[in-house]
């Protein structure tokens, strides 16, 4: 999980830029990086269980789509998600936290990367990084849970 | 393009309930503004703009503060379980000092 955790560390650093560093650019990169930290955490875990070569796994990682991952997350939040096993696994609260943060961070990332009219403040970046950290903690608790495995395989 | 499927009365009720949630956090929340719109890929969305007191921002760990407010909004408004669940909720925060400096009309 090195890249995901490294990205989270970087996002945290960017959320509190040193004096003289460009604040707006730092906050934007912090939020965007926090999203990608969580994205890569989920994608890497999803492909870990896939029995292919490392080259094939890297190829598989590139197939994950942001929009579909958002749709799966939203269905988890609205209790409409169904896994592929019967009966469908119960969704743990930790997975709902991860889903909620994923959806929120994806929207924030879009704004941070593309909405140049928006002015960001320190609390924006610190809040989103804290959310990403919360999602990491929750994911680490349930990463082997059947619901976690199945929702990743649907993305 | 319509930004909401809700009737004027539903919108009024929704706004009132948002204010009621804000009142549950008198020491932490200055006010909560919201708007219905579309998110980055066109899904219906509610954007909450939550202005927190400087004191609360300093007194509480940020995840605890924002978590309590978001849980209050999600639970009291039924954001994932009611007719509002068609909208994806997004939460943004600012301190009063930030807003006094930026004077952003959407947050007034």
Please describe the topology of this protein.
The complex is a heterodimer of chains A (155) and B (108).
Chain A: H1 2-15, H2 23-48, H3 54-61, H4 66-77, H5 93-114, H6 122-142, H7 146-153
Helix pairs in contact in A: 1-2, 1-6, 2-3, 2-5, 2-6, 4-5, 5-6
Chain B: H1 8-23, E1 29-38, E2 44-52, H2 54-59, H3 62-77, E3 88-95, H4 96-102
Parallel strand pairs in B: 2-3
Antiparallel strand pairs in B: 1-2
Written overview of the protein:
The complex is a heterodimer of chains A (155) and B (108). With 155 residues, chain A is mainly alpha-helical. Chain A has one domain. In chain A, helix 1 runs antiparallel to helix 2 and helix 2 packs across helix 3. The mean pLDDT of chain A is 89. Chain B is of the alpha+beta class and 108 residues long. Chain B has a single domain, classed as Cation efflux protein, cytoplasmic domain (Alpha-Beta Plaits, 2-Layer Sandwich). Chain B has a three-stranded mixed β-sheet. The longest helix of chain B has 16 residues. Chain B is globular, with a radius of gyration of 14 Å. In chain B, 23% of the residues are buried.
Number of domains of chain B: 1
Rounded radius of gyration of chain A (Å): 16 Å
Show the largest interface: A-B, 24 and 23 residues
Instruction: List the secondary-structure elements of chain A in sequence, H or E.
Output: HHHHHHH
Level-1 CATH class name of chain B:
Alpha Beta
User: Which structural category fits the helices and strands of chain A?
Assistant: mainly alpha
What is the 3D shape of chain B? globular
Q: How big is the Rg of chain B?
A: 14 Å
The tally of beta strands of chain B, per DSSP, is 3
Mean pLDDT of chain B: 94
Outline the biggest β-sheet of chain A. none
Quick one: overall form of chain A? globular
- Tell me about the biggest sheet of chain B? 3 strands, mixed
Number of helices, where a helix is a run of at least 4 consecutive DSSP H or I residues of chain B: 4
**CATH-derived topology of chain B:** Alpha-Beta Plaits
Total domains of chain A = 1
What pattern of helices and strands is seen along the backbone of chain B?
A: HEEHHEH
Specify the structural class of chain B. Answer: alpha+beta
Percentage beta strand of chain B: 25-35%
The portion of residues assigned to helices of chain B is 40-55%
């Amino acid at each position: 999980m090195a890249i995901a955790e490294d990205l989270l560390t970087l996002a945290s650093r960017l959320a509190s830029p040193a004096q003289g560093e460009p604040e707006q650019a730092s906050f934007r990169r912090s939020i965007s990086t926090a999203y990608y930290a969580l994205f890569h955490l989920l994608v890497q875990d999803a492909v870990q269980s896939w029995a292919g070569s490392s080259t094939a796994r890297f190829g598989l990682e590139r197939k994950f789509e942001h929009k579909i991952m958002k749709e799966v997350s939203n269905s988890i939040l609205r209790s409409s998600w169904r896994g592929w096993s019967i009966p469908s696994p119960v969704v743990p609260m930790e997975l709902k936290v991860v889903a909620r943060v994923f959806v929120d961070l994806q929207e924030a990332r879009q704004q941070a990367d593309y909405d140049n009219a928006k002015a960001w403040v320190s609390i924006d970046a610190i809040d989103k990084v804290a959310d990403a950290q919360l999602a990491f903690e929750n994911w680490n608790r349930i990463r082997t849970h059947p619901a976690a495995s199945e929702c990743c395989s649907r993305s | 393009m319509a930004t909401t499927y809700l009737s004027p009365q539903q919108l009024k009720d929704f706004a009132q309930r948002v204010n009621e949630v804000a009142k549950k956090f008198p020491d932490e929340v200055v006010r909560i503004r919201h708007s219905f719109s579309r998110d980055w890929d066109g899904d219906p969305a509610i954007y909450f703009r939550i202005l927190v007191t400087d004191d609360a921002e300093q007194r509480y760990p940020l995840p605890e503060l924002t978590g309590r407010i978001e849980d209050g909004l999600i639970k009291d408004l039924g954001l994932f379980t009611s007719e509002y669940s068609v909208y994806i909720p997004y939460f943004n925060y600012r301190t009063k000092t930030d807003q006094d400096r930026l004077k952003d009309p959407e947050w007034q």
